[in-house]
Design a protein that fits this description.
This protein is of the alpha/beta class. The chain is 32% helix and 24% strand. A hairpin with a 2-residue loop joins strand 1 and strand 2 (43-46). It binds coenzyme A and adenosine monophosphate.
Length: 626
């Protein structure tokens, strides 16, 4: 029997042999002869010269193998009262037709397509259609507002944008089309066509460049597209994620490494094979959605549940149990916040009573730190292993996890268990030396990163190297801090930069600061992430006003909250901005955000000896603690 320890060792001792074996799970058009190109460090490429089509691997080959009638995708939408199952054959038909439609709009191999859609099957169809014709998709999460969308449009320069007329939040309809129109007004780049999926809850007005989804999908309107051959190293998608500055980073995912790594992860981490049912409650706009709603379940020949709703309130905290029972779900994957929300609404899980969830084998949680309390509650409530796993948009699949498909290891509360094969995870001190057990430092991964992880940032190798590979030469800097214990279990304690995690959503305090600083009354500002019982973290803003501003403080505070909501989006969740007299700084002018956060969280805090004026911090302390 293969053991975790043996596989882990093998993956680090001989990565080429390990990932050469794993590559057998993929149907290649030209098999990989070379596994790893390490001639250009610190940039590495997997499977150079090999060719494939990701959509073929996700759909066509399963139909050829006899799975045409098996459910590929189950759309379950409590917010619209819709449930619909798509077999592999039906999904392929839709994807091939939409791919033909994209081709008719002039989209070809290497062109980019931006997708701005909620959790509807058409979002999955659009993504796979891009993969089919070798176009590069970039999905933007629906909770982002025009300014964020415009930045992504200008960076990805899409030939076509695919959008829905609206998304449905429990208490309101979010009209996407006016947000997109505003983003296009702000962006410099102009896409040639906008494809609009009209939803009855808010039908959008169409402009001269807009084409309706249903026009493209009219039977026989365009010929369905076949699979275009791409290089393993060609990009499959770009997914923007928050960095420490206001400018998001375009994470690139390639085709070959991605297909191999996701396939490997389904078998060895998630323990999912053909015919199994996976319910990932996230959003197609996040990496968890890309990997474990869309690509991995389909690459594995499994069934994916696409759930348009919330863990609570659509209609209640029993929604997930209903989905598991009705669709015989084997694996649930979501963020800890979802379970905190369920627990808060239904602490003794009364809504679970009478539900048959016996199909459920494992619950996976990721996206933010899993606090031991939530872990214990989820474990005892569901009676199945609850597996914390740690990763990032950059890696695309887990860095640390309990590899239950390979060998279930003992669980430890507060730890996402051990490094996954392929990842040499070490905790480094500031000089780049690996630290010993229980010593906290920067969590880094020795290069090369395994297949499926980012080869670079979109058209910006320089920024890739500067952001991730320069702090410690030969290592990838994760941006998270933490430690390993004496058994090699990794404990991830939180970001060491200005990225915060709100309800499993990764946000940049830098971009919120940029918005606040843009208000004419603001002289300077700081945004910090403070602890929140439900969402893990919650942003809070502090602003110092320019001299002579006469607007009442309360009015300004409301204006600033609204500004962040309209510029970045509701997802920023910035609900409180305080006008303060001054911000604490070091003598070189750096705002002491970390000390501010520690005071707000009520944990022991350190005041750097380089503080410019300690009385500023004293004056701010009551506001921070309130
Ligand atoms: N489109 C438009 N608006 C959106 C949106 C979307 N796709 N997703 C969220 N929003 C809005 C929400 O409506 C909310 O608006 P409001 O300020 O008017 O209430 C705001 O953005 C904040 O959303 P969220 O942080 O999700 O808070 P919430 O109170 O609506 O829900 C939870 C809280 C815990 C139920 C919810 O965050 C959740 O289900 N989390 C699961 C974690 C998850 O999916 N993480 C993704 C990565 S794995
Ligand atoms: P994202 O790129 O949106 O997936 O966010 C990645 C970040 O979320 C990581 O850098 C961590 O800070 C945090 N994160 C994700 N999963 C975990 C986890 N299991 N434990 C602790 N933090 C996590």
């Amino acid at each position: 029997m293969t053991s975790y320890a043996g596989e882990y060792r093998r993956s680090l001792d001989d990565p080429a042999a390990f990932w050469g074996d794993a590559a057998r799970s993929v149907n290649w058009i030209r098999r990989p002869k070379q596994i790893l190109d390490d001639t250009n460090p610190p940039l590495y490429r997997w499977y150079p010269g090999a060719r494939l089509n990701t959509c073929y691997n996700a759909l066509d080959r399963h139909i050829i193998a006899g799975r045409a009638e098996q459910a590929a995708l189950i759309y379950d939408s409590p917010v619209t009262g819709t449930k619909r199952t798509y077999s592999y054959a039906e999904l392929l038909d839709l994807v091939a037709r939409f791919a033909g439609g994209l081709e008719a709009c002039g989209v070809g191999k290497g062109d980019t397509v931006l997708i701005y859609m909620p959790m509807v099957p058409e979002a999955v169809v659009a993504m796979l259609a891009c993969a089919r014709i070798g176009a590069v998709h970039s999905v933007v999460f629906g909770g982002f507002a025009p300014a964020e969308l415009a930045v992504r449009i200008d960076d990805a320069r899409p030939k076509v944008v695919v959008a829905a007329s609206c998304g449905l939040e429990p208490t309101r309809v979010v009209e996407y089309k006016p947000l997109l129109d505003e983003a296009l007004r702000r962006a410099e780049h102009e896409p040639e066509t906008v494809v609009v999926l009209q939803r009855p809850q808010a039908v959008a007005e169409l402009g001269p460049k807009d084409v309706e989804w249903r026009t493209i999908m009219t039977p026989n309107a365009v010929p369905p597209a076949g699979c275009v051959t791409v290089e393993a190293t060609d990009p499959l998608y770009i997914l923007y994620t928050s960095g420490t500055t206001g400018r998001p980073k375009g994470i690139v995912r390639d085709n070959g490494g991605h297909a191999v790594a996701l396939g490997w992860s389904m078998q060895n981490i998630f323990g999912i094979g053909p015919g199994d049912v996976m319910f990932t409650a996230s959003d197609v706009g996040w990496v968890v959605g890309h990997s474990y709603i869309v690509y991995a379940p389909l690459l594995a020949g499994a069934t994916t549940v696409l759930y348009e709703g919330k863990p609570v309130g659509t209609p209640d905290a029993g929604a997930f149990w209903r989905v598991v029972e009705e669709h015989k779900v084997n694996v649930v994957f979501t963020a800890p916040t979802a379970f905190r929300a369920i627990r808060r609404a239904d602490p003794s899980a009364e809504l679970l009573e009478g539900r048959d969830i016996s199909s459920l084998r494992t619950l996976f949680l990721a996206g933010e730190r899993l606090d031991p309390d939530t872990w214990a509650w989820a474990s005892s409530t569901l009676g199945v292993p609850v597996v914390d796993n740690w990763w990032q948009t950059e890696t695309g699949w887990p860095i640390c996890a309990n590899p239950v498909g390979l060998e279930p290891l003992p669980l430890k509360a507060g730890s996402p268990t051990v490094p996954v094969p392929g990842y040499d995870v070490q905790v480094l001190d500031p000089s780049g030396q690996p630290l010993g057990p229980a010593e906290e430092g920067a969590i880094c991964i020795r290069l090369p990163l395994p297949p499926g992880t980012l080869p670079t940032l979109w058209q910006d190798d320089e920024r890739f190297v500067a952001s991730y590979l320069s702090a410690f030469p030969g290592w990838y800097l994760s941006g998270d801090g933490g430690f390993k214990d004496e058994d090699g279990y990794v404990f991830v304690m939180g970001r060491t930069d200005d990225v915060i995690n709100v309800a499993g959503h990764r946000l940049s305090t830098g971009s919120m600061e940029a918005v606040l600083a843009g208000h004419p009354a603001v002289a300077e500002c700081a945004v910090i992430g403070v602890h929140d019982e439900l969402k893990g973290q919650q942003p809070r803003g502090f602003v110092v006003l320019k001299a002579g501003v006469e607007t009442p403080v309360a009015q300004l505070e409301t204006e600033l909250v609204t500004l962040v909501r309209t510029e970045i989006g509701a997802v920023a969740s910035l609900r409180r901005v305080d006008v303060v007299a001054a911000l604490p700084k070091t003598r070189s002018g750096k705002i002491l955000r970390r000390t501010m956060r520690e005071i707000a969280d009520g944990v022991p805090f350190t005041v750097p000896s380089t503080i410019e004026d300690a009385s500023v911090l004293d004056a701010l302390t009551p506001t921070l603690r309130s």
